[in-house]
Amino acid sequence: DGQRLLRTAGGRAGKERLMNDVKINIWNPEMECMSRRDTEALQLERLKALVDYCDRNVAFYHKRLSEAGVTADKIKTLSDVQYIPYTTKADLRDTYPFGMFSVPQKQLVRIHASSGTTGKPIVSGYTQGDVDVWTEMMARTLSAAGGGADDIVQVSYGYGLFTGGLGAHQGAGKLGATVIPMSSGNTQRQINMLRAMGSTMLCCTPSYALLIGETVRDKGIDPESLRVRIGIFGAEPWTEDMRRRIEEKMGIDALNVYGLSEVMGPGVAMECMAKNGMHIWEDHFLPEVIGENGESLPYGEQGDLTFTTLTKHGMPLLRYRTHDLCTLIDEPCPCGRTHVRMGRVMGRTDDMLIIRGVNVFPSQIEHALLQVKGIEPHYHIVVDRQGTLDTIEVQVELSPNLMSDTIKDLETLEKKIVNSLASHALIHASVKLCQPGTLSRSEGKAVRVTDKRKL
Ligand code: DLL
Question: Ligand 1: which of 156, 238, 260 to mutate, judged by most atoms within 8 Å of the beta carbon?
Answer without folding.
Answer: 260
